[in-house]
Amino acid sequence: MKIKMVYSVVIVFTLIAVSSLVLAVQQQKQSTVSLPEMSPELNVGKLNYDVMCASCHGNNALGTDKGPTFLHRVYHPGHHGDQAFFLAPKQGVRAHHWPFGDMPPVEGITDQQIEKITIYIRALQKANGVF
To answer: For residues 31 and 116, what is the distance between their CA atoms, to the nearest angstrom?
Structure first.
């Protein structure tokens, strides 16, 4: 009986945690985004992001029901450095922060595209107080 109660409590807390993450994503999606001053390099990064990433991670990195926002402290450079942004589209990522499931590798993406995309995401993050 005690074990069933412990399992029930664990399940409830897990559901609350997942619900909180989903709510945070939804609130972020509804908020406005401060755009950085766009340079030619950032424009190239945005164009690549829009083609390779936006369908899951949303316009201006706000997230969708398929993938998380990058404008969250989880993606602060101190937690997910640029190398993580390089490896994720190349190798895919096991779900570990969000309830969206595993991220598959992005077919056809090049190192140069990833570099420009990362620069664009970091500029968006900086413009929106992530760091």
So the answer is: 25
Q: In the prediction, which pLDDT does 66 show?
A: 96
Residue located via tokens 């598959």 = 104
Q: What is the pLDDT of residues 82-91, one digit of tens each?
A: 999 999 999 9
Contacts of 76 (CB under 8 A, 6+ apart): 125, 130, 131
What is the distance between the alpha carbons of residues 95 and 121, in angstroms, rounded to a whole number? 20
The three-state (H, E, C) secondary structure of 27-80, written as one string: HHHHCCCCCCCCCHHHHHHHHHHHHHCHHHHCHHHCCCCCCCCCCCHHHCCCCC
Q: How far is CA 7 from the centre of its chain?
A: 30
Identify the three-state secondary structure at position 31: coil
Find tokens 């968006």 and name the residue.
Answer: 124
- In order of their start, the domains of the chain are 2-127 (1.10.760.10)
Alpha-carbon Rg for the chain, nearest whole angstrom, is 17
Over residues 105-109, mean pLDDT: 98
Contact 89/109 with Cβ under 8 angstroms? Answer: yes
